[in-house]
Design brief:
By secondary structure, this protein is mainly alpha-helical. It contains 7 helices and no strands. Helix 2 runs parallel beside helix 4, helix 2 packs across helix 7 and helix 4 crosses helix 7.
Amino acid sequence: MAGHHLFIQGTPKAFSPQCARHFALIESLTMGPLFGLLVVHYVSTFCQYPERSARGFPQILQELKGKAAGQDAWLAMLRSSSSGVEGVVYPAGALAAQLFLLPLWLILCSGTPQLAHATLLHANRILQDKYAVIGQGAPPFAGERARECARDAEFHASHLSEPTDYAAAMVILLILYCILL
């Protein structure tokens, strides 16, 4: 949750344009670990834990869909309420952060999926709390995002003791090593 206080000091009491920047940043930062878990579960299908895909894919894809929709809504709000420069620079910065963090999340998720689930659990709980307190003047989708964050937090809480698939971790690390060389 790096950047927790980057745009909002303390807990917001009502919606403001600063909230759009904050939520767009946090929602985008939580997409990387989800994608990492998706890749790890995909590779696990062919390694030690083939049942993970059947259990994890639908929920992770649903969560990614919600995060992408939230990101789209927040960025649309930023484009409409700010200068043209910020509407272009902000998404470009978010993309650069994703490209930089994705290999790190893949390594982390392959070695310790439990840590990725714990990170997403706490991120979703914080987002749920923040969505709940900006109810005044918030866009209509904020209430739905709060409910989705609560549902997603429950999913990640149930996967905190998931064992590491060492075969999948080795495959992912080998692929990353070949790509990054």
